[in-house]
Specification:
The complex is a heterodimer. By secondary structure, chain A is an all-alpha fold. Helix content of chain A is 76%, strand content 1%. The longest helix of chain B has 14 residues.
Chain lengths: 283, 258
């Protein structure tokens, strides 16, 4: 027989140990990337183009390329996603069709990126002839983030208390005025979080840009939407897989570290936005 | 049979009102005339349709999926359920205060300014004046005039409810519906709102749903007693409380059920 006190302390120690393992593994990854990546990071690495012949050079076009990809993807997915979310949350009746739509959107959110990549490659790149380009990859990436934007935005809007809507409607506000001035504003922190989450997914995505965007070895910035852009993750993948060239692998770590730092900035800004809004809106 | 309507000066004239939610027949053939600038209390046990009755008067039941309404409600002689009637106009003219204070997640000022803004009734300096006037009417101005930009959530429950009253008044309604406005408030805040209701009746027609019989007796001129979706008794509050005609009313007032 185990007495309750003993059981309690065993559980505590076990949980503590397991948490420690999971947290320290994350910490280990970050430390490893930081140690190996910081060796190559300097102003030159950040401000020059890669040299794929000697597996040397910097990552400037890749940093900018990633920002372009994310910007295009977000510019497409955000208005579409928010509109769809408004429709599902405020206008659609809660019937079979709406529920089925919601289910499909949720399923789409988990679709393997290789499937989206394949669709982008065959449909956008070949069929519509947008070529392997910033445009093709940006649009394909928006297929990836769109379901997230819709789902998170819709959930934030549905979480807005009914009393707010009734308050506005009882004053004679139209449904649209209520949706726009009350529901949307109250849901803004959640919606912004959803958008930032989408940006995060797009920023880290490798498969889709690899199939639709470019080689990751671009030495120039794109001069139009229809020029190739691979971005930082693809660069990292290509450089990391040159196993026998240590200068390449080092640079892959440099790319990873920059990517990780970009994520950190993104999460931090998400946190700031949330806190600021929450302070403003909530009790 | 077509009913021919003759306007005889009542502020609100409800004729053969029926409301269903899905298959649930909540209000059964309600007919009721309410005079202008009076306070009418709607009383009755839980689930008798009190809230549904007042929500019918500004068409807020329309918002609920699966609701169906038949009959007429004339406000100033015009049927608000007529196909020509504009629901947004109806709700502007017939304001509503809810059971739980429901300020919008905005500043005190923005809460009151919201209605006039969406109806494009005022802007700039003029809007400031509307906000001040409404807050004064709701007896809140002195407590908030130096912090209009603060969040409405920083106010106490009673203040929030008076803010909701000010917000309703800001769009210049004729009728103010109140759905148990004090049920979430402490006695001190309740007494303030009750005083306010008496003052408001000088300029508005007030209909208040209440669970609290003392409150009905204190604030209202007329009382409607509702039971299972039907009007059991309607008359001067004094008469209803001192000399109820119906056995059910008497039982309710003496606390035998409720």
């Amino acid at each position: 027989m185990i007495d309750a006190e003993k059981e309690e302390s065993v559980a505590k120690i076990l949980l503590w140990a397991v948490s420690l393992i999971s947290v320290s593994s994350l910490f280990a990854i970050f430390t490893y990337i930081f140690l190996r990546g910081s060796k190559v990071i300097n102003l030159e690495f950040l401000m020059t183009a890669p040299n794929p012949i000697f597996w040397a050079g910097g990552i400037f076009p890749q940093i900018v390329g990633s920002l372009y990809l994310v910007a295009l993807c977000t510019a497409v997915a955000t208005p579409l996603g928010i509109s769809a979310a408004i429709f599902l949350s405020e206008y659609a009746r809660n019937n079979f069709i709406t529920k089925t739509t919601r289910f499909f959107i949720l399923t789409l959110a988990g679709i393997p990126t290789i499937v989206i990549g394949l669709f982008g490659l065959t449909f956008l790149v070949y069929r519509l002839d947008f070529r392997v380009s910033l445009f093709s990859a940006g649009i394909a990436l928006s297929f990836l983030t769109l379901p997230w934007t819709i789902t998170v935005s819709e959930e934030s809007m549905r979480a807005v208390p009914m009393e707010y809507r009734e308050a506005a409607l009882a004053l004679g506000a139209t449904k649209w005025q209520t949706t726009w001035h009350v529901v949307f504003k109250a849901a803004a922190p959640g919606i912004i979080t959803g958008i930032l989450l989408g940006i995060g997914k797009a920023l880290g995505e490798t498969t889709i840009p690899l199939m639709c965007g470019g080689s990751g070895l671009e030495t120039f910035l794109p001069r139009s939407l229809f020029e190739p852009v691979g971005g930082l993750p693809v660069y990292t993948f290509i450089f990391a897989t040159q196993g026998n060239v240590s200068s390449a692998v080092d640079r892959a770590f440099g790319g990873s570290l920059v990517l990780t730092l970009m994520f950190l900035v993104l999460s931090a800004s998400a946190l700031v936005v949330r806190n600021r809004y929450q302070k403003k809106l909530r009790k | 049979m077509m009913a021919i309507y003759m306007f005889d000066g009542e502020k609100i004239d409800i004729r053969n009102l029926n409301v269903w939610f899905e298959d649930n027949h909540v209000l059964k053939d309600i007919s009721l005339k309410i005079r202008g600038n009076t306070v009418t209390a709607v009383m009755g046990p839980s689930g008798c349709g009190k809230t549904t009755l007042i929500r019918a008067i500004n068409r807020m039941n329309d918002v609920i999926e699966g609701s169906r309404t038949t009959g007429q409600i004339y406000v100033d002689g015009r049927d608000i359920y007529d196909s020509n009637s504009n629901v947004y106009d109806v709700r502007r003219k017939v304001g509503m205060v809810f059971q739980k204070p429901n300020p919008l997640p905005k500043s005190i000022y923005e809460n009151v300014a919201f209605g006039p803004k969406i109806h494009k009734m005022a802007r700039g300096k003029e809007l400031d004046q509307v906000v001040e006037k409404s807050l004064r009417e709701a007896a809140l101005w002195d407590e908030v005039n130096n912090r209009l930009k603060d969040s409405a959530f920083e106010l106490s429950g009673g203040q929030q409810q008076r803010l909701c009253i000010a917000r309703a008044l800001a769009v210049k309604p004729d009728v103010v519906l109140m759905d148990e406005p004090c049920s979430a408030l402490d006695p001190a805040a309740t007494s303030k709102i009750e005083q306010l209701i008496r003052v408001l009746s000088e300029n508005y027609t007030v209909i208040i749903v209440t669970h609290n019989m003392q409150q009905a007796a204190r604030v209202s001129d007329f009382t409607v007693f509702l039971y299972l979706g039907e009007i059991i008794e309607y008359g001067k509050t004094k008469n209803i409380f001192e000399n109820p005609q119906n056995e059910l009313t008497e039982k309710y007032i003496t606390g035998e059920f409720g």
